[in-house]
Amino acid sequence: MAPYDVLLLLVVSFCTVQVSIQGENEHRLIGQLMHNIAGERPVINESQVLNVKVGIYLTQIIELDETSQVLTTNIWLTLSWNDYQLQWDPSQYNELDTVRLDNDALWKPDIVLYNSAQERFETTFDANVVVTSSGNCNYIPQAIFRSTCHVDLRWFPFDTQKCDLKFGSWTYGAWSLDLTMSEAVISEYVPNGEWELVEVSGKKNSRIYECCEEPYSDVTYTIVMRRRSLFYLLHVFIPCILISILALFVFLLPADSGEKITLGVAVMLSLILLMMLGANVIPANSDSVPLIARYFIITMVIVTLSVIVTVVVLQFHHHDPHGAKMPKWIRVVLFDWCAWFLRMKRPTEDSADFNDRMVQPASPDSELVGQAGEGEVLLTKVPSPAVHSHEPEIARILDEVRYIAKRFREQQQGKTTRSDWKFAALVIDRLCFLVFLLFIVLFTLGIFVSAPN
């Protein structure tokens, strides 16, 4: 046999012997430890308080159900305590300092989640207990915890939620088992697409319940998380803002087009459809009105008012000129104040008032002479003996002229009245456009500024 083969055989034999010795020592140690333990609280004296150190490793926020108000998280729960029955001398077991024992065979603290919402109360992974030679026991089960959490949706979708995880012993009071809090570890945290983890803080509490005289200790971890609102901005807020802007164009559309009401109703139907789609993403909760729901309601009110104002504008625009005259207060408010504020001027008339261009017709003793000059008709008195012989004809002609002049006056008056109502409708349109634009801008900015984040 070659020297290298002999050396290789010796190395393999040495390693095999070491593993065999280590396995024998561990088997002997576990047998000895199992023989020593009795399953009761591991204290030398019954009056002694056993200290248990509690901590968590937050690995993932799986879901927050706002409707049922339940938080689902993936957490590694860490429990540490000292069991005097599990101590040994490592030198007697080939320097073996750590063993893994079945947790069913050992005593372990009955630490549970007080605010659990699980269908089955015990949901932790059945992990082994790591025991050191000094008797320190480390139990780190992994679990999917479902805990109750009060969700405040007042600022949805710009809300920040705080959820508590309350851990404590179910049967041992503080006189028998005291808890020590460890800081929460988030180094293994996996980010969530809907929630941004802000912080995880912990606090130890002590409370006396009605059932018992001794206080009970608990460790409460508060998970603070902020909702990621980009999805709601893109799919809810921006479409709602665009629909609000479309409602403004109802005031810019000319009344003669006949499409003002059609556009207003179309905008309202679009907003109703968006609200029905948005209801699927808004949590069903009646404790408070979410911010996005308030924005929908105010936008619906704006669109509804725009349709109502459009009806009033069309009523002004198509007002019967032979009907009731425009009240004086409307003239003062719209023509003197609003028109001045909006820098609006009435369109110039095509022709002057007919009363300024007509002279009273001549008497029967006068001679009717027609003179054309710049489109005017001038009646002059020219005495003549021949007039007396044609008095009936002249009278009939004068009656016709009076009738024509009356008709012209009525038409001119109706035209002026119709122009007044149309200009009043135009002023209302312009005023409502500015008022609604200012309100939409201020309300939208107020919504985003008032949000917590």
Structure, described:
The protein is an alpha+beta fold. It folds into 3 domains: 39-228, Neurotransmitter-gated ion-channel ligand-binding domain (Acetylcholine Binding Protein, Chain: A, Distorted Sandwich), CATH 2.70.170.10; 232-344 and 431-450, Methane Monooxygenase Hydroxylase, Chain G, domain 1 (Up-down Bundle), CATH 1.20.58; 359-417, no CATH class. The chain contains 7 helices and 13 strands. The strands form 3 sheets. Strands 1, 2, 3, 5, 6, 7 and 9 form a 7-stranded mixed sheet that branches. The chain has a 4-stranded antiparallel sheet with strand order 4-8-11-10, with no helix packed on it. Strands 12-13 form a two-stranded antiparallel sheet. Helix 2 packs parallel to helix 4 and helix 3 packs antiparallel against helix 4. It is rod-shaped and about 160 Å long. The protein starts with a helix and ends with a helix.
Question: Keywords, please?
Answer:
453 residues, alpha+beta, Acetylcholine Binding Protein, Chain: A, Methane Monooxygenase Hydroxylase, Chain G, domain 1, 3 domains, seven-stranded mixed β-sheet, four-stranded antiparallel β-sheet, 13 strands, 40% helix, rod-shaped
Q: Report the C-alpha radius of gyration, rounded.
A: 46 Å
* Number of discrete domains: 3
- CATH architecture group name of the largest domain: Distorted Sandwich
Give the total of beta strands.
13
Q: Kindly identify the CATH topology of the largest domain.
A: Acetylcholine Binding Protein, Chain: A
Mean pLDDT: 81
Q: CATH superfamily assignment of the largest domain? A: Neurotransmitter-gated ion-channel ligand-binding domain
Class by alpha and beta content: alpha+beta
User: Helicity range of the residues?
Assistant: 25-40%
Fraction in beta strands: 15-25%
Main sheet overview: 7 strands, mixed
CATH level-1 class of the largest domain: Mainly Beta
Number of helices: 7
